[in-house]
Amino acid sequence: MSKLLSKALQWHCQFFTLVSYLQSPFLLLVRLYWGWQLAQSGWGKLHHLSNVGEYFATLGLPMPAQMAVFIACVEFFGGIFLALGLASRITGLVLTVNLTMAYVIGDREALFSIFSDPDKFAAAAPFAFLVVSLIVLIFGGGRISADTVMVSLFGSTQLKQANTAPT
Known about the structure:
single chain, globular
């Protein structure tokens, strides 16, 4: 029995060692796809600022025109930074706050249905972007990112440690 358990443990370790090599390519694909989508959303808002401002006014936001410019820029530049993996965790934090507020202010009904009707919560527009932002905030940009290049060129040991997700 001990030999069988030892062999199973060895296979388990080998399998997850191989799977761990997929972490950075996976983060790259997630960042590229959702960063591009977010940048496109921001670009669309930048080109329709009056409509976005009017929508924000209906939500009761202060200074809706200025808020529309700010949110459009956060989405556009945040999407680009996300796709590149540049300042990944800071970008993830800013986008997480932005998208959480999108739920709180713009889709409160979906937010409050998180436990009673999870499908409604997951179907809301900010959901996928929020999940991706949280993934990048928690795991960083991965080894295939502008962060890694910047750290290898200019970074200190502390920055290298901060950029590398623990395994």
